[in-house]
Amino acid sequence: MYILIAILIFGILVAVHEFGHFITAKLCGVRVLEFSIGMGPTLLKKQGAETLYSLRALPIGGFCAMEEDEASSDPRAFPNQSLPKKLLILVAGAGMNFLMGFALILAVFAGSGAQTTEITGFMEGCPYESETAFQVGDEIWKIDGHRVYVTGDISTFLSRGTVHDVMVKRGGEKVTLEGLHIERLEYPGQAQPMYGFELQGQAKGLVQKTQHAWYQSCYFVRMVWMSLGDLISGTYGVNDLSGVVGIVGMMSDVGKQSASAWAAFMNLAYLSAFIAINLAVMNLLPIPALDGGRILFLLLLWPVEKILKRRPDPKYEGYIHTAGLMLLMGLMVYVMFNDVMRIVG
Questions:
Q1: Annotation says 18 is catalytic
Q2: Other C-beta atoms within 10 Å of 333: how many?
Q3: Rounded to an integer, what is the distance from CA 286 to the centroid of its chain?
Q4: At 13, is the secondary structure helix, strand, or coil?
Q5: Is 287 helix (H, G, I), strand (E, B) or coil?
Q6: pLDDT digit string, tens, across residues 250-307
Q7: Do residues 199 and 120 touch, judged by C-beta distance below 8 A?
Q8: Rounded to whole angstroms, how far apart are CA atoms 195 and 241?
Q9: pTM of the model
């Protein structure tokens, strides 16, 4: 059941992304030829006034097909729009994914509350409670110069080393604790190593929860960027990536391991928010075949068009996007194979 729910969630994420392109194109007066959810053979279709709406067999993508013939004289064709309109349409898909992630986080916080970064206690035997380290009531403000907004920031930055400079807000003043040696330790009754300080304060009221939902969304963006940096630096390799199969398996595990149906719903909503924001960031990377790649070409070619008074031959850009798509598909197949092998193992 949870596998089916995970697949449905992916379908919704794709639908929301493509709807962002679709509704923005419509609002900008651009002709949309087809709006499709899914890829491959068509299962259902309905012809609207000018747009074909279709549902396809494979829930691995989707598209919003606008009139994009460079030679078209149609003033409503995408190539004949102004640069701001083109950029707005291309960004809209990722923007909708981000907004969906933010809305899901806000819904989760509305139901369970948002944890703050204020230390409310310490586990028995925690060595980090002292006059020169942490104290009850401290609000963790910065770790190694990085601003801390949510509890996830704390574990993220502390996990990237063992010696840290930590700034806390104590009694209304900011205090810097330099050279703290902090690592996860074993504590009685805990199934896994932990840092030992408790963060149990809850953000109250809609304004605070909305603020924390925004911070959590930005934290997810930060996580994606840091993960990309680790991938480029070699800290992690391609074999550590997880694709659709792995994520569906993860979502299934999260659902089955939840204590109740409500907890499963909340946990899946939270994980779906992370996936939605992850998709938003990844889609805007300046990689050919992605929206970010198309945005990059628009920005690079716009001054060329102004100088030459004509558009460069679009077939060369098409070749680059096609090559990028083939490479991305190859990477997806490789990652999917690794996901399957991990599940089998």
A1: yes
A2: 11
A3: 16
A4: helix
A5: coil
A6: 887 887 888 888 888 888 888 899 999 999 999 999 988 889 999 998 998 888 877 8
A7: yes
A8: 27
A9: 0.83
